[in-house]
Batch of 2 targets.
Target 1
Amino acid sequence: MAVQGFGNVGSVAAAELENFGAKIVAISDVTGGIINKDGIDIKQLFKHFKESGSLIGYPFAKQCTNEEVLTCDCDILAPAATQSVVTSDIAGKIKAKIVAEGANSPTVPDADEILAQKNVFIIPDILCNAGGVFVSYLEYTQETQREQMTLEQVNKRLNDRMNAKFEQVFEYSQGKQLKNASGCNGYSCEQSCRSDECIGCFAIRFMLA
């Protein structure tokens, strides 16, 4: 796996996926990238980053460019930094089978088409990075409803929610014969419309009561 970005999203994603058994072969931050086909020890990298404030100088990997991180030989690529980093040129060079969009809008529209032609499976940003929004909602409910949750309970609810939404979006996309990005947008719009209908019905009933 390769991760572009070592901020709040990228660093945590790398650490969590390493815990699940993934091998991180490349990672980058604003100062540059590092690559090691045999794998990068993320805990060790965190220690180096804390001491130096940068990935540069990490002794157990080769320095590389941001483009080399995005186009390296890996199964999963997670662009988790800024928008529009996966350009048409980059998309043509991507070797990953899965692109998990941790950042907002990391892939430009033309690149989406190229990745689709290469049969790259894309997990769209509004689904892939929705976990942060859901946990913010859990924080809100804890405050407003005085509902206390342990870290384990939060993680379970997060995992259950994300797994369910992924399956729903995937089934919707397959059923409509849409690419994942288009399917995700369509599914989101339908769910939003249904929510508005429910709110509208409730408001009408309230006014008529």
Target 2
Amino acid sequence: MSSPPFKIRPARIRDLPRITTVCLAGLPDDPTFDFLWRYAHEYPDDNYFFWLQRFKDDLYDPKKTFLVAVESADRHKDEESGEPRETIVAFAVWERNDTASHIPHLISQLVRKEFTRRDGDVKRTAAFLEVMDKVHAKYWEKKYAQNYHLELLATHPDYRRRGAGTLLSQWGIDQGLAAGIDIGVEASPMGFRLYSQLGFTLEETLMVEVEGDDAKLKVKVMVYDKSKESLKA
């Protein structure tokens, strides 16, 4: 029996540059990225820098589990560890919610006070965050207060449709089912099909809009249908 093409493990601090590279290779295909970071092509250094700071926050947030999917090259060994050299091909950030308290991104807050970000659209970002805050309060703090919430998932384009995204998504589904709690995600247009195939159902569709701006963004709130598990049993 052949071994699976990828394995997942917790992210480490030294993984963050590669994770950021995967993010910036994978997310621009998604309408959400274009909507928020419309000036990323003009300020690529800003885009890389602020994503890197965001990932540092995620790595040290006690409510979150930061995972990577890696491909091992058995013929090439790491000089320090002697282990097969790995290539990070995808990553996911899962949030475990069991209280109404929300831990702020402290590193990002400090960085924003020090530096002016030029790659994003300020009004669109503000409108998006307002919608996402409402979603978090309504679903992940109240209606489904005990949950595993998939905050972010990205796969490098060279490794798409090979199972890495499914593997990372299934981790959170398995954790939620084992704990007897709900599993949720806000699906982007790119991710909606994957999550539907995995067993998530649409709860609500919201629209992010800015007055005087023709661009709009759909946010689809999805929750895993646990009733399907009883049918499998």
